[in-house]
Amino acid sequence: MDFVKVLRSLEEILFEVLTWLVIYPRQLWKIIRQPRRVAAQVRDEVAKPLEQRYTDSISPALFLMLSVLLAHFLEILLQVALPKVAMPVTGYVFSNQKAVLAYRSAAFAIWPLAATVYLLLRQHKQVQPDNLRAPFSEQCYLVAPFAVALSLGVSLLLMFEARLQLVAIGLIVLASGWYLGVQIWWMRVRLQRGLADAVFSALLVIAVGLAINLFFGSLLPTRHAGNHHAQASLSESG
């Protein structure tokens, strides 16, 4: 009986994964082409009972994680050789596959969280789950294309092939421009303020997210270096 339950659970998991293969690319393209419509649909979904939400789409947080997984899969296909000693993050986080996925998921989730908290503070609302849910869900969708394109662009840069450098830079610039434009629109609609205010808010949120990522990233190699130094000292004493 237990074996049958396990098989049924595996069947459900397999079906879920296969549906992602169909739904994900279509949903990603929709976000790129119609971010405003997607944001409006999220607000409608959040208003529904929990069991009725996202029945024909992938939920926002899961969609972001799948986007990070896709970016990592593309990196593997490109056979990108990450430098052993490079930027602060690469020294420690990129030492294994699980760390890569965990760090990237958390890193890209920082921007949705920063935008959501900023919005609530500007609206003089309490930062609590009920108030966070809708804007954070919108932001998870909106950051997903940026996550895929930016990761792919950085991967191409790390291949150190001259013919790919312009492609990589163009992809990064395009993704950053798209994300900035979407954030400006989102802030303008959500805050009900003018263009100048929206531009300032979008740039501030992106800068805060970047600063947080750089801060936590800078802590990682210190720990790694400390462990390496301790091991070296033990070896010498032995």
TrEMBL record:
<feature type="transmembrane region" description="Helical">
    <location>
        <begin position="141"/>
        <end position="160"/>
    </location>
</feature>
<protein>
    <recommendedName>
        <fullName>Permease</fullName>
    </recommendedName>
</protein>
<feature type="transmembrane region" description="Helical">
    <location>
        <begin position="166"/>
        <end position="186"/>
    </location>
</feature>
<keyword id="KW-1133">Transmembrane helix</keyword>
<feature type="transmembrane region" description="Helical">
    <location>
        <begin position="61"/>
        <end position="82"/>
    </location>
</feature>
<keyword id="KW-0472">Membrane</keyword>
<feature type="transmembrane region" description="Helical">
    <location>
        <begin position="102"/>
        <end position="121"/>
    </location>
</feature>
<keyword id="KW-0812">Transmembrane</keyword>
<feature type="transmembrane region" description="Helical">
    <location>
        <begin position="198"/>
        <end position="216"/>
    </location>
</feature>
